[in-house]
Design goal:
- This protein is an alpha/beta fold and 375 residues long.
- It folds into 2 domains: 130 residues, Rossmann fold (3-Layer(aba) Sandwich); 186 residues, Dihydrodipicolinate Reductase, domain 2 (2-Layer Sandwich).
- 32% of the residues lie in helices and 24% in strands.
- It is globular and about 70 Å long.
- It contains 11 helices and 14 strands.
- It catalyses: D-xylose + NADP(+) = D-xylono-1,5-lactone + NADPH + H(+).
Length: 375
């Protein structure tokens, strides 16, 4: 599996789920690029019906040749010998079982975030992957974007704003939840409904990426203070603070389903300046600007503070960054990728568990004996 030609590693993908995220992923990784790092073939599509699967192909991959095989179920994709890796784009509540089924068939896995509903499920899936000796990774595409690595370099190598002190990040969308049918995944608790697993995970990721220096990553557990606004059990809004006792750094992080975040979604403060990150959403950053420390006297005189802007060209949406990284890892014989390691996936899920433990959001699966981890 994961065979490569003389120049680029190649992966043949089986796609599970035909929703919006799967459409973005498949179109993005198959679009022509100037300097591709891997070859991605959409080999098979698994859907709840042939008609739905065929519609997905005609709408999102109309010129793809050869066309992928469409199956009216998921097991046929898992067991297709021509498929190397399964991409799971189903709702959160299905991730655990989808992953376990793909692993049992001996397939590599890239599973959308949030990886599972909680840390206990994540550990179960990762243990199964280790036993079967297959590659598996959470699809947190944000971590693979060049903007992120550049930002961390500016912060911790160039120390452009001095000592990092705190970050504010919000990810909000106006989803008009009350108008949605009860069958919507955004309202079904069994599917992981709420702002936290969909959007708060991005705010949390930004907090981790900006407040933790490369040399200290994962060595200090942040203290967490959290609150949630629940409506029919669904977290409409989540707010949480990460505090790192050794450095005093703080992250003030939020998510909501009732208001859209402005284009500037993140402010990062240091002892010698600040940084603003902009983009369509916290999941899709486009640029960041570095500003010097504000001089109160100059500000009083009306002097305009000029920032240094860093722009990043992305072909398409940028899902190919993570897909290429997966292909390269598998070609090297790795079973996890260091950028989104298994340990980091579990750690993030543990923090999300703690936020829900304090905020009150629960899923039916947890009421059946699957408790939240406490950190």
């Amino acid at each position: 599996m994961g065979s490569s030609d003389q120049t680029l590693p190649t992966l043949r993908w089986g796609i599970i789920g035909t929703g919006l995220i799967s459409s973005w992923f498949t179109k993005d990784i198959t679009a022509p690029r100037k300097t591709p790092r891997a070859t991605h073939i959409i080999q098979a599509i698994g859907s709840s019906s042939l008609s739905k699967g065929n519609a997905f192909v005609s709408q999102n991959l109309p010129t793809l040749s050869p066309a992928p095989t469409v199956y009216p179920d998921y097991p046929s994709v898992y067991n297709d010998p021509a498929v190397d890796i399964i991409y799971i784009g189903t709702p959160h509540g299905l991730h655990k079982q989808n992953c376990l089924d793909a692993i049992a068939a001996g397939k590599h896995v890239l599973c959308e975030k949030a990886f599972t509903l909680n840390a206990a499920e994540a550990r179960e899936v990762l243990a199964a992957a280790a036993e079967k000796n297959v590659f598996i990774m959470e699809a947190m595409w944000l971590r693979f974007r060049p903007l992120v690595s550049s930002l961390r370099k500016v912060l911790y190598e160039e120390k452009a704003i001095g000592d990092v002190r705190r970050v504010f990040c919000d990810f909000g969308l106006d989803m008009n939840i009350s108008s949605l049918p009860e069958s919507s995944r955004l309202k079904k608790l069994s599917m992981g409904a709420g702002s936290l697993l969909d959007m708060g995970i991005y705010s949390l990721t930004w907090g981790i990426l900006t407040l933790e220096s490369p040399e200290s990553t994962s060595t200090e557990k942040p203290q967490i203070t959290a609150t949630q606004t629940l409506r029919d059990g669904v977290d409409i809004a989540s707010s949480f603070v990460l505090r790192y006792p050794a450095t005093g750094r703080q992250g003030i992080l939020t998510s909501t389903l009732e208001a859209r975040t402005p284009r500037t979604f993140l402010r990062l403060e240091g002892t010698e300046g600040y940084i603003l990150v902009e983009g369509p959403a916290a999941s899709s950053p486009a640029s960041f600007s570095v500003y010097p420390k504000v001089n109160p006297a100059a500000e009083k005189e009306g002097s305009k503070v000029e920032g240094k802007k860093y722009d990043f060209e992305v072909e398409g949406m940028g899902f190919y960054f993570e897909a290429d990284a997966v292909a390269e890892s598998i070609a090297r014989g790795e079973r996890e990728n260091a950028v989104m390691s298994h340990g980091e996936t579990v750690r993030v899920m543990e923090i999300l568990d703690e936020i829900r433990r304090q905020g009150g959001a629960r899923f039916p699966q947890e009421e059946q004996g699957k408790g939240l981890s406490s950190i």
